[in-house]
Amino acid sequence: MYGFAFGSGVIFAFDAPARQAFVAEVASAGRLRAAIALNAAVFQATRLIGPAVASLLIVTAGTGWVFAVNAACYLGPTIGLLRLRPSDLAPAPAASREPGALRTAARYVRRRPDVAWTIFLVGMLGTFGLNFPIVLTAMAKTAFHGDASTYGLFNIVLAIGSAAGALRAAAGAQPRPRVIAASAAVFGLSQAAAALAPDLAVFLPLLATMGFVNLAFQAMANASVQLAVDPELRGRVMGLYMLVFIGGTPIGAPIVGALTSQFGPRAGMAVCGVVPALAAALMAAALARRSGGRDGVSRVRSG
Q: In order of start, what are the domains of the chain with their CATH numbers?
């Protein structure tokens, strides 16, 4: 099992950035923003809807069938890719091959503060905010004295909110950094409030809100980064994006797990909400200071 998990992770490291950047080669220029947002929304929605379906299958059919159904789900995308006509694609200019490509992407991002702050915020959410398997399992068992069906209910409610957030993000306007920061703050505060919820009647609506805002945030952040970078570096920057987003989980999960074990599920879930909210506030303050500095320079020049 460890070997299969490691192999899946290696494949994902190559697959995810390429799949994210590939959207720009499939969609026309006029539909690029909507296509990127929809792709990001679907990508994030499946990460939440999948566990909800899996929890139902575990209860009704058994764990082994979850792996079988998951494997079968890859047939559809494979057939879809094989049916694409290469002549209809619009390949991006190829970046020059060089050693240290990740360092090149990092230097490029450092020169783009809006992109850098967005990736930083995505990393904070990926590291702390999205530890749902840990905190929701503990909340179901300890805080609300439920069982596997309670955990399944949590995933279903989260998935419903996520699906709504995905639809909203795909139909939204051009993502702005302040809106991205605000959505991350709402997500964090909603999760912190859910940690203090006295009963399921309060917890479940907050859970749906978390799903909605999280999916909207992820889609906007993904679209804003892809649209802001040069096409030839889009794949490398998205590789850095996915490294920060997915790679933070192995760091944050043990921390959140230890906090949950030591201080209880409510404390663990509260930390998962407070950290992204503080990161969003830091991003908003940095962008406001940078915007104020530009305004001051403009006034001096016009004077």
A: 2-86+102-290 (1.20.1250.20)
